[in-house]
């Protein structure tokens, strides 16, 4: 199947890494859709409004995408939130809110998208994690827990659905040059840079390149893998 006959769903494509991934797939010639809560989208991306915290909403969004451009061939689960604070100050709600969006929301999307992939006996599932998930970070117990758990999802899906032509992999970005990073104080940015062997932040397009590879024909025998895009920050983890 050629790229322009394949449907990609990138959750949270309205900003940041998700937007760069969606733009890369449009440039590669795929039919691209997103599930998002609001905001403008890149040109060529079909938007279906959905809430990662609600299974019915996710199901409706996938149904709308299927009616517009067919069953999902590639799912990129990117949508996520953070509620950073130190462990002793973190409330139950700050923990469970992040889990519900980042982890359970990803599960909801994987479960829904995999139905069509099983029927077609092919599919690519790509979960966007973080170096924090394997490396750890103070003040991010909730966020790191969800990002680490995505590895378990990918590897379990690989064992469960691998014989049906479905792969599941994780991309773990490090510090990315986004609006959020640019808003950090200069001293904080320099502290982060000092810990990165590559001595620079990544561009969102570099994460998109790794995702594009995993969705393409050369990655058909890669599954259950964690691909770091972190300039060497988390190596060995």
Automatic annotation (TrEMBL):
EC top class, as a word: oxidoreductase
Keyword presence, Hydrolase: no
Protein's name according to its UniProt entry: 3-oxoacyl-[acyl-carrier-protein] reductase FabG1
UniProt organism field: Occultella aeris
Family: Belongs to the short-chain dehydrogenases/reductases (SDR) family.
Domain Ketoreductase, chain residue ranges per copy: 6-179
Lineage, uppermost ranks: Bacteria, Bacillati, Actinomycetota, Actinomycetes, Micrococcales
EC number(s) per entry: 1.1.1.100
Gene transcribed to yield this protein: fabG1
Keyword terms: Oxidoreductase
Keyword Aminoacyl-tRNA synthetase: no
One term of GO molecular function: 3-oxoacyl-[acyl-carrier-protein] reductase (NADPH) activity
């Amino acid at each position: 199947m050629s790229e322009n006959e394949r449907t990609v769903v990138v959750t949270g494509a309205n900003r940041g890494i998700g937007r760069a991934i969606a733009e890369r797939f449009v440039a590669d010639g795929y039919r691209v859709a997103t599930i998002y809560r609001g905001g403008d989208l890149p040109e060529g991306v079909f938007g279906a409004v959905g809430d990662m915290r609600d299974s019915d909403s996710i199901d409706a969004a996938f149904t709308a995408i299927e009616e517009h451009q067919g069953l999902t061939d590639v799912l990129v689960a990117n949508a996520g939130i953070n509620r950073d604070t130190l462990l002793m100050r973190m409330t139950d709600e700050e923990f469970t809110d992040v889990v519900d969006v980042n982890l359970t929301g990803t599960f909801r999307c994987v479960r829904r998208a995999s139905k069509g992939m099983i029927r077609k006996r092919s599919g690519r599932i790509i979960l966007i994690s973080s170096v924090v998930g394997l490396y750890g970070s103070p003040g991010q117990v909730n966020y790191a827990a969800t990002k680490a758990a995505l590895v378990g999802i990918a590897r379990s899906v690989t064992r469960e659905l691998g014989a049906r032509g479905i792969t599941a992999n994780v991309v773990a970005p490090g510090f990315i040059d986004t609006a959020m990073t640019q808003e950090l104080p200069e001293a904080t940015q320099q502290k982060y840079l000092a810990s990165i062997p590559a001595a620079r932040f990544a561009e969102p397009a570099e994460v998109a390149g790794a995702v594009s590879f995993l969705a393409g024909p050369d990655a058909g025998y890669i599954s259950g893998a964690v691909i770091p895009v972190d300039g060497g920050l988390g190596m060995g983890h």
